[in-house]
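Narrative of accomplishments. A recurring question from our advisory board has been how the design workflow behaves on a single, concrete structure rather than in aggregate. To address it, we present the structure tokens for one chain from the evaluation set, followed by the sequence designed for it. No filtering or post-editing was applied between the two.
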């Protein structure tokens, strides 16, 4: 029974990690949309953009602790976004 309990913990950690990854990329996508719609002066005013930026940074730090190749994952995401335009 102890082994099964350990598997459940690992599974729930994976789910948490997956939801964190999804949250991170959702926020990064929102940032990209905001950046494309606002002028640099409007971005400097903060508000929603700054809130999303802080959230992306927080989630990014959390994910870097869990994934050694997190920077590569982000680079792939950015490359995919550039190639789809």
């Amino acid at each position: 029974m102890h082994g099964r309990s350990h598997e459940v913990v690992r599974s729930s950690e994976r789910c948490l990690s997956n939801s964190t990854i999804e949250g991170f990329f959702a926020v990064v996508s929102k940032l990209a949309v905001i950046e494309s719609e606002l002028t640099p002066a409007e971005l400097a005013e903060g508000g929603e953009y700054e809130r999303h930026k802080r959230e992306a940074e927080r989630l990014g730090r959390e994910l870097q602790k869990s994934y050694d190749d997190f920077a590569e994952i982000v680079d792939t995401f950015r490359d995919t976004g550039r190639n789809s335009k």
